[in-house]
């Protein structure tokens, strides 16, 4: 949810459409898989996911059932290889793994890319080096602008679920939460502020209201 909100904010700032963006997700664990699924649910058509062995593609051997299902839903261009192949001409990269990405690969992305290096305490690529090429940089740490972390969503999500009296968090609720997070800064967005501060007092109530509304449509 936080990643989707950040991408929405960055695309708004750059005058781009998220659904036509080419997005690479580094990491196919719980965080990477959930992020890829939510991006697909948000209408992003071109998502490529990598694990420690490289790009997931339909039919790749040795995949567990979760990764095999993810491979079947992503990588529409059938890419094969590693990060160098995936990142070339990509519009955005989401780092959700412990791997290191050389800044030279960021230079091969599409002009003015979006780079979210979210591993903490050591991000996948140094934010300062990434900023040489990227229009927007986000991290998982509080020592840099654009902190993309779960606490942007989780207090409001749980408040909304309790208020709505529902037992499950649906995809529609997650999408609504992401929109609510992005909406907090929509009128004052800058390259250093594509998401609100995690302690912004408007954040949790806005997310909770969005979740309640989404729950009512279930």
Question: Which structural traits does this protein have?
Answer:
218 residues, alpha/beta, Rossmann fold, 2 domains, six-stranded mixed beta sheet, 9 helices, 6 strands, globular
Describe this structure in words.
The relative contact order is 0.16. This protein has a 6-stranded mixed sheet with strand order 3-2-1-4-5-6. The protein is an alpha/beta fold and 218 residues long. It starts with a helix and ends with a helix. The longest helix has 14 residues, at 171-184. Helix 2 (30-41) packs parallel to helix 3 (65-73) and helix 7 crosses helix 9 (203-216). The model has no long low-confidence stretch (mean pLDDT 95). Strand 5, helix 6 and strand 6 (136-139) form a beta-alpha-beta unit. The chain folds into 2 domains: 16-139, Rossmann fold; 150-216, no CATH class. The protein contains 9 helices and 6 strands; from the N terminus they run αβαββααβαβαβααα.
Which helices and strands, and how do they pair?
Layout: H1 2-14, E1 22-26, H2 30-41, E2 46-51, E3 54-55, H3 65-73, H4 83-87, E4 92-95, H5 103-106, E5 114-117, H6 127-130, E6 136-139, H7 154-164, H8 171-184, H9 203-216
Parallel strand pairs: 1-2, 1-4, 4-5, 5-6
Antiparallel strand pairs: 2-3
Helix pairs in contact: 1-8, 2-3, 7-9, 8-9
